Amino acid sequence: MVKRYMHRSRIVICLVFLVFTWVGFAQEEANYTFELKETELVPVGDSNNIFFDYDLDGDLDLIISGYNNDFSEVTSTHTFLYTNDGKGNFTIDKRSSFMGIEYGKIDVGDIDNDKDLDIVITGQELIKNKEGGIVIYKNENAVFKKIKKIEPDRAYSVYANFIDVNNDQYEDLLVELNDSIKFYINDKKGDFLAAGNLEGIDEVYEYGVIPFDMDNDGDIMLQGEYGYELEPKTLLFKNNSGKYESVSHNFKNTFQGIVVPVDIDNDGDQDVFMTNLGSISENLDESFFYIKEEGSFKESVSDVLVYNIVQSCFVDLDSDGDKDLIIMGNRKELNKPGYYSEAIDIYENKEGVFELIKTAAFPFLGQSSINTADVDGDGNQDVLLTGYEGETPRTRLYINKLK
User: Fold this and answer.
1) What is the mean pLDDT of the chain?
2) DSSP assignment of 116-158
3) Which option is the CATH number for 2-400: 2.120.10.70, 2.130.10.10, 3.30.390.10, 3.30.365.10?
4) Is the pLDDT of residue 2 over 60?
């Protein structure tokens, strides 16, 4: 399907780690086989989801949120926790209940250093007499208890993430709230205390928050839209002993593309991959790598095709020890300026060289998410897709039948 590019206001970021170079289309597809598995997972669009082992039994469970207007008479937004039996069969765990959200963010972290994972959830909650917020849930023997809610003054929050702001080995909280980026410090007694705002973003209309650890102390990158013309701009903030300062950089701007902190050259440092660069009025037909070398970032042009409104996941699909790429979005048509094709493509990493080896790898879904995990314990990475098929929400789990 070919269509003109349509604007969407939310910026979505996926954090990934990979070693990667692009060399163009490959003519021969690798032997990838993914089998659609029947599940009882809630079908949702506008989803956020995370695989994690909340019950410490050694397999990966799932928390998933999103929108479905037909699933319940009470609410259109949902968040459910599913336990994995170790073979990829998921059953809803009704012992815990959560704020149901869309357009949101779920993160997990050990907030009390007791070896199990706790949860923070934020987003739009579509239920009568409720306004959403940011809610923290503590894991108590695999049952989650709400311990704190941060209420918004205006619009719902779209971002919350655990991050060690003050480097005390306890997870603090970074949130988007009331058109600001705010910090909440973990008091180590079960509460998070407001500790101020990120300064220097007063003119930002909207932004994507990207934890970007340049030097292992919790730095932040923002991709925002500024001024009357809503021109995109990239900001970088360095964490200096719990105080964030704006620093100069050579990163370009991106409009509805992706900004990915990655270890491109496998040297242990975070580099950056960016695509769909430029502005609303003028986009560059290029993607860029920024390789960290001796404390600075060296820019180099990539041959990766241009995608916008992107979801991506870098994962070792063929079990050869390096990470491949699944990317979903509107791929720019090379011979039709201004036109884009809906695409889910797989790129194979061949000794550091990425080749597009499978197009239309899965049926396309709009307003989507991609996640991966070895859900059945066979050593292969499986794929979870959510989104809309037309106006119908879908959640699809594909089992990797690597041959």
Assistant:
1) 84
2) S-EEEEEEE--BTT---EEEEEEEETTEEEEEEEEPPSSSPP-
3) 2.130.10.10
4) no
